[in-house]
Amino acid sequence: MKPSKLNAYIFIIPSLFLTLVFGIYPLLWALRYMFYDYQGIGKPIFIGLENFARIIRDGQFWDSVKNTGIYALGKLVITIPLSLILAIILNRKWRGRSLFRAVFYLPTIFSASVMAIVFFIIFNSYNGILNQLLMKYHIISSPIGWLDANHAMLTTIIIAIWGAVGNYMLLFIAGLQSIPEELYEAASLDGASEFQKLRNVTIPLLGPVMQMIIMLAITTALKGYESIMVLTEGGPYGKTEVMYLYLFKLLFPVSADTQSLQQLGYGSAVGFTTALIVGAVTLIYFQISKKLNDVY
Question: Which sequence ranges are marked TM in the entry (predicted)?
Answer without folding.
Answer: 7-28, 70-90, 102-123, 152-174, 203-222, 264-286
